[in-house]
Design a protein that fits this description.
The protein has 312 residues and is mostly helical. The chain has three domains: 1-50, no CATH class; 63-171; 172-312, no CATH class. The protein has twelve helices and no strands. The chain has helices at 5-31, 38-62, 64-86, 94-113, 117-120, 123-138, 145-162, 165-168, 181-206, 221-237, 246-274, 289-311. The chain is globular, with a radius of gyration of 20 Å.
């Protein structure tokens, strides 16, 4: 079996970062005498969770489109559940929610797996957009109708439609890059996620001016620019693993880190509105699924359609 050396380099780099992180947390716990403070304990939980998430993500990529569609389909299902839990519905919405969870969500990912671009790009924003209020209206409950239906439509768009564009990257037919799309997915996820981490790091080191303190008090101007520019630099340096040249990789990295920031900010605003810190507790140290993929939501469709338009 032929192993792509570039893919091995990417995977090795990620594992190396995790090993380094685990080593750092080990010595931090050792220095604290076996009783780490809350920050160290949280860091340790996050690193352990990252090991699990990277392993699951790696298995999904190794199994190709089918494995990735299943993985991200499950992520969308759990994220949708978390989102809906934060936005209470009424009895009149129960059948609408059944359609959202068990018909629209699997159908969206089935279309991605079938590579039916023409339908998967409009299923949620057109057909589900019409289905949700229609099905709720048939239940005969008009109380807070607009608010209720808008919440379900928003949940489907963010948790299902946007996220489904990540495995859809595997279906793109890029000339001269055939059979290598797993590296494109890895590049995208790595740049967006490392931007989140670096924004946090730079914010802790240099952060003084808060961007939107009423929504996300930990986000600072210094952390934002430090993280975005650092992640853009990393994305530019990884151009060799993509179908882009160095400046194209840099420009796309800059755009998706910006969109990742906006996605995280919007998802934080929703949490503030609902009065919660996290969307869930499924992933130790990270909160819920939605807390981990919030930055992917806005970045994924932008990246997918830019690559499809300019490189296929």
């Amino acid at each position: 079996m032929h192993l792509d050396p570039e893919l091995l380099w990417l995977a090795g780099g990620i594992i190396g970062l995790l090993v380094l992180s685990s080593t750092i947390t080990f010595f931090l716990k050792l220095r604290s005498g076996g009783k780490p403070n809350a920050v160290v304990a949280n860091l340790d939980a996050r690193v352990k969770a990252w090991w699990v998430m990277v392993a699951v993500f790696g298995v999904a990529l190794a199994t190709g489109v089918i494995g990735s569609v299943i993985l991200f389909g499950l992520m969308s299902f759990f994220a949708l559940r978390e989102f809906i839990t934060l936005t209470p519905t009424r009895a009149g919405d129960h059948r609408t929610l059944f359609w959202a969870f068990f018909i629209v969500t699997p159908l969206q990912y089935y279309l991605v797996g079938m590579e039916w671009y023409g339908l998967f790009t409009i299923l949620v924003p057109v057909y589900a957009f019409i289905l949700v209020p229609t099905r709720s209206a048939l239940a005969g409950d008009s109380e807070h109708f607009l608010e209720r239906t808008a919440k379900i439509q928003w949940a489907l768009m963010v948790c299902v439609y946007c996220v489904s564009h990540v495995p859809a990257l595997l279906t793109l037919k890029i000339r001269g890059y055939e059979g290598q799309n797993s590296k494109l997915v890895l590049f995208f996820v790595l740049v967006v996620q490392i931007s989140d981490v670096l924004q946090y790091v730079w914010g802790k080191l240099l952060g003084k001016h808060k961007i939107v303190p009423t929504i996300s008090p930990n986000k600072t101007v210094e952390g934002f620019w430090g993280g975005v520019l650092s992640a853009t630099g990393i994305g530019t340096a990884l151009w060799w693993a993509t179908p882009f040249n160095w400046w194209q990789a840099g420009l796309l990295s800059f755009l998706i880190t910006l969109m990742g920031f906006f996605g995280g900010l919007v998802m934080s605003a929703i949490k503030r509105d609902r009065g919660v810190k996290d969307y869930g507790t499924l992933i130790e140290g990270h909160g819920g699924v939605m807390d981990r993929i919030d930055s992917l939501c806005f970045a994924a469709p932008i990246f997918f359609h830019l690559v499809r338009y300019f490189f296929t």
